[in-house]
From TrEMBL:
Superkingdom per UniProt: Bacteria
InterPro entries per record: KilA/APSES_HTH, KilA_N
Stated name of the protein: KilA-N domain-containing protein
Natural source organism: Halopseudomonas pertucinogena
Lineage: Bacteria, Pseudomonadati, Pseudomonadota, Gammaproteobacteria, Pseudomonadales
Entry-linked Pfam families: KilA-N
Domain KilA-N: 3-103
SMART domains: KilA-N
């Protein structure tokens, strides 16, 4: 099994370490490939084809560095990771390609989640304004809990609990933003539900009807994606 996060790559049981410039530790790749002596980094680096490739890559930076000390070793850029894997075997080459594809996907999802959180923050005033003007138009009092109730409605639809319950379950402090801890699929659902809820408030839909409508749309548009994401993260 290959596990990928935003900053680490693990092939089998081996974590592929990186240096401060993002290069990958060739010694770890060797270990992940099976650690056979004939596949040692020094043999590959002395190969003429490897030397030619490194020479080409040097026009855009430093593709290979050797570090001393505890985390020492040879670190190479991604292009050389692929080249080394192909030199080892077709099977290992394919495994590395698939691993790095997952890394790109994970990074893309993180970037999209960050953008969605920002959109949710920017759109939050639309929801609070909808609550405010709806109650004022009806001649009703406006209390702070009227706003928090609407955001908690969204939390209950998407997360299955209130923000207070979510913080308790995840060890968060009372003032920690819940949405900064959500997965990409969760934050996309929150963003959508927040926008939809504001629109339903604007047309005067009662709370119970809005709650039912939000649940309906969530089940239709987001539940499958959330389940798939959970399965992927737990794999």
């Amino acid at each position: 099994m290959t596990i990928v996060t935003s900053s680490n790559v693990r092939i089998g049981s081996v974590t592929i370490r990186r240096d401060t410039e993002g290069r990958f530790r060739l010694n770890d790749l060797h270990k992940a490939s099976g650690g056979e002596k004939r596949h040692g980094p020094s043999y590959w680096l002395s190969n003429q084809q490897t030397i030619d490739l490194i020479t080409l890559l040097q026009t855009t930076g430093n593709p290979v560095v050797t570090l001393e000390g505890r985390n020492g070793g040879t670190y190479v850029v991604k292009e050389l990771v692929y080249a080394y894997a192909m030199w080892v075997s077709a099977e290992f080459h394919l495994h590395v390609i698939q691993t790095f594809d997952r890394l790109v996907e994970a990074q893309s999802e993180i970037a999209e989640a960050k953008a969605a959180r920002q959109r949710a923050r920017l759109e939050a005033p639309f929801l609070t304004d909808a609550v405010k003007y709806n109650r004022l138009a009806a001649g009703k009092d406006l209390k702070p809990y009227h706003f928090s109730n609407e955001f908690d409605l969204i939390n209950r639809v998407v997360l299955g609990c209130s923000s207070k319950q979510y913080r308790a379950a995840h060890g968060l402090a009372a003032n920690d933003p819940v949405r900064d801890t959500l997965t990409p699929a969760e934050i996309r659902a929150v963003e959508h539900m927040q926008r939809l809820n504001a629109s339903l408030i604007d047309i005067g839909m009662p709370f119970d009807q809005r709650k039912a409508r939000l649940h309906q749309v969530f089940m239709l548009r987001h539940q499958r994606a959330l389940i798939a994401e959970t399965v992927r993260l737990e794999a």
